[in-house]
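Data card: per-record layout.
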Amino acid sequence: KILGAGDDGYAGIPTVKVETVETVSIVGMVSDAETSLSDLTIDSDAHEFISFDPLNLEITVSFDEIVYDSRGTPISQGIFITLGDGEDFSSGTLMFNVIENGQPRWSGVPTQSFDEGSSASLSLTEFLTDTDDNGNPTSTGLLTLSVVSVSDESLMTASINGQTLNVESVDDDSFGMAEIVVRASDGVKESDTVITFHINNINDAPAIELGEYVSQIVQTGERLNIDILAMVSDVDDPSEEIWVTVTTFVPGAVQYNPISGIATMSWSESGQEMVTITAEDRHGASSAAIMTIEVVNDLPLLWVDSSGYGDLAVSMDNTDYSSNPSVSIANVGTLELSDIKVLWSVCNSITGICNDFGVSHNLGPFIVLANSGEGLKVGDYVTLTVDAVDSTGFDRSTPDSFKAYATEAVEEIPEEPEDEPENVDKGTLSVMTVGVMAIGLLLAVSLVLGLAIVLQRQRRDGVGAEVYDYHEEYDYSDEPQVSPLVAPPVPPGMAPPLPPEGLPAGWTMQQWNHYGEEYLRRREQS
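The structure for this 526-residue chain is written out next.
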């Protein structure tokens, strides 16, 4: 028999903790006048009933929740059992008071939502309660909260600050739903709850990713084909529904095919051009991106400067007067060049005329034949320009000519030993000796010419005067001989005639006396 409140020996309603496996004595809860309690059988189909221990006269139970009345007061809960002594059976309900077990408790947290690309915060304090081991309420401020899991970490992230849950979208385009498990702990016991978050879908404008096409280089007259549709995407709508336009300032320079998605670009003049790409979805949201196109006639090849920076380095064996230089050009840069063409010329800085020209289809070595093979002369200089094609197909050219000026060979004169002056070769004339002899010769010639003029005048003016032939009497054997190493200057009156416009700009009479004839000859040829 199951004892009730009016039966003798009734022990009252036992108290158990929720969500806890409890053992309760059956003494004072059931009785049998003929059979010992240890010989009884107790069974139940209720999920709260676990087992009966006849040796210890205990039943094991576990309740999942506390049931409250309309005023929020916990009420007793029962387990329907079957009691038997081997012959007879009876049934009834054992009542239990279910109280808190000291574990933190969650009330239901409503579903939360926020827009894509943003975040949300939620204070969880109002959804928490806590008790001690006897079921008495305690402060929830001492509880520690933590995030156990996020069902879709590709959609959102979650963190706890104090007792506030912070949720943030991982990017600006993702939307959907995820469940976040949050745990509350008082240091001894803990409990979990599931909070659902929705990320609302907000229409996004199509995205344009230019990538390597942000800046491009194209030659004048060449065509540049770019797949525009491959750059455009939309997370909300199919790419087929995106309307794309491609424009530039030069009419007709850009042609866009909306079917293939290919834009063909070409310009006839060099300069920097801007190409605007616009993409619009069916909801009216649009975005734009700008490409910078550098239109060039050709790209530069740079001569190596004093710091070693550049693409081409020039080497010449010599630039002495009367020489025909051998030229080699080294490609010291990172460019791979083909279709090489080296243009060389020999010009004169005095006359301003370029006489000789040539082409080499490699970087050398090659010979520069100056003045029809006679070699470089005073005022000559060699110019070099290089045209080539790089590995990307672009034409390249040196923007400035390389120049190398002809120079006079430096004569090395050995030093005379101070202690052996008698061994000096007296037949060798120094430059200073030759100069002194030339000056002496000029003075002697001038003296003879002046004396001859005076004598001629005396001969004309004198009547019956005795004429003395100084020329026959003068002994020229002692006069110094003209050195073949030095040519005397052109005597007055022997210089070439000046052109009608006068002496060329920047020339001196001394230069005209020596180079005027060559100037007039080249002028007639041109």
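Known properties of this structure: Helices lie at 431-461, 470-473, 509-525. The mean pLDDT is 84.

See the next section for split statistics.
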